[in-house]
Amino acid sequence: MRNARQGRQTRVTISDVGAAAGVSASTVSRVLNGTAKVDPSLAARVHDAVTQLGYRPNAAAQGLARGEWGTIGVLVPNLANPYFPDVLKAVSSVARSHGRRVMVMETDEDPSIEHDLVEDLMRSCDGVLLCSSRMERADLVVLTARDHPLVLLDRIVPGLAAPAVSADFFGGMMLICGHLAQLGHRRVAYLSGPEVSWANSERIRALEAAKAFGISVTILPCGSTSRHGYKAAAEVAGTGATALTTYNDLVALGAVTRLRELGVRVPEELSVVGFDDIALDHVAHTSLTTVSVPRGQLGRQAAETLESLMAGKHDGEPVYLSMELHVRDSTAPPRVTREVTR
Amino acid sequence: MRNARQGRQTRVTISDVGAAAGVSASTVSRVLNGTAKVDPSLAARVHDAVTQLGYRPNAAAQGLARGEWGTIGVLVPNLANPYFPDVLKAVSSVARSHGRRVMVMETDEDPSIEHDLVEDLMRSCDGVLLCSSRMERADLVVLTARDHPLVLLDRIVPGLAAPAVSADFFGGMMLICGHLAQLGHRRVAYLSGPEVSWANSERIRALEAAKAFGISVTILPCGSTSRHGYKAAAEVAGTGATALTTYNDLVALGAVTRLRELGVRVPEELSVVGFDDIALDHVAHTSLTTVSVPRGQLGRQAAETLESLMAGKHDGEPVYLSMELHVRDSTAPPRVTREVTR
DNA sequence: CTGTTAGCGCGTTCAC
DNA sequence: GTGAACGCGCTAACAG
């Protein structure tokens, strides 16, 4: 058997088209790719043959011959997080304008398969965009050492051979802390995201930094979904916190739900603030105070960095996109300012 | 220049590995694929060389030689719709168990690019899963006529050369109508989804059928997002409806938000029912009466159908997965049963 | 302008 | 067991 082609998949090749049109394969190629000028009448015959036979170029063969796939790969932890679609749309748009398509894969929050998936992507894409990578630094070093275009999104690792574009999570959390401090909050709890998440550690770093302003912080392990937030919320009471910060909006919303069930009024008894500003227009039960990144810009800039990388330009410093504070209805001054009553 | 390879991308090939290990390329291939027995000591040397050189097989070359890509492609209208991640996870899982990876693309609800994307996918995947296609029947016929494995998900078109797996939207809407009728509702409004959506027309078909049970229906153009629902909700008042049905949960939630702003109490003054049972655990402001599909099963079954199709088996009849009614807090008997008072 | 030739990197027969 | 030769489908350099 010459090939593992199953069934009677009578695949039509470029030479079939050539034969049908009475020209050589190269001429067909030229017509289809506009690579060179071709006699109009021949071109017409080629086009006819193409439609007659239903010919479609084989992507693998093209990729092999050109040394390019015309594709960029994007790896995200979790497609269920509303954060990514916005990013992806921007990425797609940039990619398309460069004549590339994008293929998306998700790790399902499982760091153990992330490495393999990146390698897969590298083997079949011109460049890869790695979003919110949960990989260990060492693995990342190995991966970025291969000279294959790769850019990190929402993960900054110093001294890496790959460009990075990220929201400024540290700055975002600082904004939140500042807001809470100005409202008079002193004791803050934090529902922590995935431990392996750099974005999470950046938030925590900011929380630590905020201590200098007289804020004390209790960190509670939680997760990244509304369900996690719902489950973890009960433990906030024990911390004595008057304000609750969270890994993201989903967690915050889940927490608020639970808090209400427990009879805790938000924001009167407890202020809650989200993170990311996920667009849940007219859907969420609470108008959350939160911080936002321009997700479109994030995706766009990352994609463009990747494009320029593929074009051979070596980009430099990591880019931080600053976040913006949105004060809404889930934060208020603490009910009793213990510092004052004492 | 022999190739469009940019920069000094010193790509390492299988022969490089062979040279380094002092064997032929074929031996390397055999070792890596376990295709035939190889002397253990040689195999060891090969493995060493592979890691030393950081060799990774070129996916295009493999695909070309094997006549297989090891990939299935999935096309969805909109990644932002929480409906799809669940489906995708199931699909990925099935694909992975068959040694295939999945690449996802989205049309962004733009039917005009859908056709091209499917063709792209067909050119670079062993099979494609087309979700909620918005394409016209004629285009679909053309596409499925090519003998390339393709299965439709959530779109049934009679007489098509491709298998299909879909939620039973008609049945789902009938369940809703039955529920509303039993509560005493007679006048129902429907916030319609995208016009080009088959899923939408199935819902409408059910609504029409429900007329036989004495239900009158007003159809209002709307859309598929919460924003659409929010915008369209104001027009419901003018219809005299006591119950509002919707294209999906997102629309319903958006509508409820608007209705509340307008001072319409749900469900006391107006019952609202969703569709899909999107998991917005602890996030949504309203506990919506809705219908659900087992999205995991949907994805799983579609993926398995695709696999068997790729294996050469020709699957038969379209499969309808039945939906389930979830009565929650957004429906109630109509405030005034006009039939009675009259 | 067009046909012919030579790879792209890999899997796989075929001889040894 | 192993290497050499061939072909997968296509593009690009080379002649004409």
From TrEMBL, chains A, B:
Domain HTH lacI-type: 12-66
Alphabetic keyword roster: DNA-binding, Transcription, Transcription regulation
Claim: DNA-binding is one of the keywords in the record: yes
Keyword DNA-binding carried by entry: yes
Highest rank taxon of the organism: Bacteria
InterPro entries: HTH_LacI, LacI/GalR-like_sensor, Lambda_DNA-bd_dom_sf, Peripla_BP_I
Gene Ontology molecular functions: DNA binding
Name of the featured protein: LacI family DNA-binding transcriptional regulator
